[in-house]
Amino acid sequence: MKPTKVVLAYSGGLDTSVIAKWLMEKYQCDVIAFTADIGQGSEIKEAKIKAKKIGIKKIYVEDLKEIFVKDYIFPMFRANAIYEGEYYLGTSIARPLISKRLVEIAKKEKTNYICHGATGKGNDQVRFELSAYSLNKEIKIIAPWREWAFKSRKDLVRYAKLNKINIDYNKGKESPYSMDANILHTSYEGGILEDPITAPDESMWLNTQSLKDAPSSPQVIEVEFKNGDMIRINGKKMTAAKILASLNKFGNKHGIGRLDIVENRYVGIKSRGCYETPGGTIYHKAHKAIESLTLDREVLHLKEDAVNRYSRLIYNGYWFSPEREILQNMINQTQKNVEGIVKIKLYKGNVIVLGRQSNKSLYSKDLSTFESDSGDYNQKDAEGFIKVISTRLKNKKK
Description:
The chain has 13 helices and 14 strands. It has helices at residues 14-27, 43-54, 65-78, 95-108, 124-135, 153-162, 240-253, 278-294, 297-316, 322-334, 365-368, 381-389, 391-394, and strands at 5-9, 30-37, 58-63, 113-115, 140-142, 178-181, 186-189, 219-226, 229-233, 236-237, 258-264, 270-276, 340-347, 350-357. It has 398 residues and is α/β, with parallel strands linked by helices. The protein folds into two domains: 5-174, 3-Layer(aba) Sandwich (Rossmann fold), CATH 3.40.50; 186-295 and 337-357, Alpha-Beta Complex (Argininosuccinate synthetase, chain A, domain 2). It has a five-stranded parallel beta sheet with strand order 3-2-1-4-5, with helices on both faces. It starts with a strand and ends with a helix. Helix content is 39%, strand content 20%.
C-alpha cells in the first residue's frame, strides 16, 4: 500500500531536498516537511523557502531548543555521559527528540508514514527508527538511502540539477564534509576525513577559535548547580538553552571542545569524525567538579559503572528504552544534593577547575588535613583495616 502523505525530517540540505522530490515522484504522495530548530543556525530560515520551491505545501518549523536542552541534554549531562571515553553524543541525543515530533506530527496529519535522510551505513538510521518504533509500533518508515538507485552525493547533485532543485551545492558553497549541527555540537565526517592519518584543514572548524587565535589571557567564570543542573553563570540565572548557548560562546572564544576520533558505529563500521563541543566540554568538567564534593564515594562509583552502559544506549538509539529510563531514574536520584558553585579558568583550549563550594559538601577539612588528628578518624585504626583487606592478597595462589 502506497502512502498518500509522508512526514519528512527536512533540513533544507542536499539529501533531504532530493528526498522530498523523490518521494513525490515515486509515491505520488503529499510530503509534509518537519524542520526542528535545535540550534543549528541559519539553515532554519532557508529550509522553509527551499521546501516551498520544491513543491512541499505543508511545513512545520518548530523552535525546540529549550525542550532539547532541558529534557534531553541536561538529563544526559547529569550522567556525565561520554561514548568511548571521548564523544559527547551531540548527534545521538538529538535524534530521539526529532523522532518524537515526527511521530506526533504523523498522528496529527493522519498518516503512519515518516521519512528520514540517514544513510544505510550510519548510526542515525538506527536512532531514528528505534525511537519511532518505541513511540508508535504501527509507524511505517521510508529510508530512501536503502531504497533508491543513487550511490553517492554526486548522484544527488545530478538529480537536483535535473529537477531544478536550488541547493547551495550548486553554487559551490557546500562544505566538503558531511556535517550535523545543533546547540550542543557540530560534527564533520567524509571527504579527506575518511583517511584517518589526514589532518583536517583549520578552515573546517566553524565554532571554535584556533589555539593560535584564542586570547592570550585566561578568563575565569563561576557556574552554579542545583539538583545536578547548571542554573547560573556568573551569578545570572538563565534557562537551560541560554546556559548552554552562553557556555558555547566562552568555549568558542578560548578554543575549547575540538575532538578528532575514530569511533565504533553500532552497525559495525569504524568511522573517523571530528567534533566541536565548546559549551558541553566546559559543562562536563564543572559538573564532575561539583559531584566530587557532594556525592558519596560508593554512589559516585556505582554511577560511573552505570554510565558506560547509559552512554552506549544513547549512542545506539535506545533513548526511549526501559533500560535507559531505569538508569535515568537512578542517575536523577544521585543528583539531589549536587549543588553549589564551581570556579573555572578558560585558557587556550583548557578548562581548569580553580575551586568548588557547596552547602551539601561531604568534604571535611578536619578529616582530610595532614596537620592534626581530629574528628572520628584515628590513624592507628588504618593498620587493622589494611591487614583485613590484605588477607585475600596474602593467600592467593602463586
